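Continuing the batch. This is chain 6 of the set; chains 1 through 5 are on the previous pages. Same settings as before, nothing changed between runs. Recording input and output for traceability.
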Amino acid sequence: GGVCGQVMWYAAVHAEFVHDHADYGFETPGVKFNWRTIKEKRDAYVTRLNEIYENNLKKACVDIIRGYGKFTADPQPTVEVEGKKYTAPHILIATGGRPAVPPDSQIPGASLGITSDGFFDLEELPRRSVIVGAGYIAVEIAGILSTLGSKSSLLIRRDKVV
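Output for chain 6:
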């Protein structure tokens, strides 16, 4: 989520403000929300931020090494990335993360869904949405989609019947 989530959250906050305008005497008939506009502006904003962060790292003489790495058995702290070894007193490995999607054989229809990453790739606001899970990201996405006009449902798994 990060910055992308914040931008979408603020879009939902503005939608709530517009919804309440009439209670404060403002007449705002026919206000429409354009998903594509916020997506394009959000993506451009994130691209600019990433460029700023990378430039700041370069100015601070930080080397960014992209690739698959592993710690070695060397006596000094050493990481091997794509066959090249790097040794330093302090090593930061920013792994990122990828959600796991179960196979259709395990959960029929799982391949038809999208992950929270896919939420940020949506080209249009879905008319209806089902969010599976009850973590803070799931609840936040359900709230954003619902506020912006998608008829949303939140599915929560229960391990036991009470």
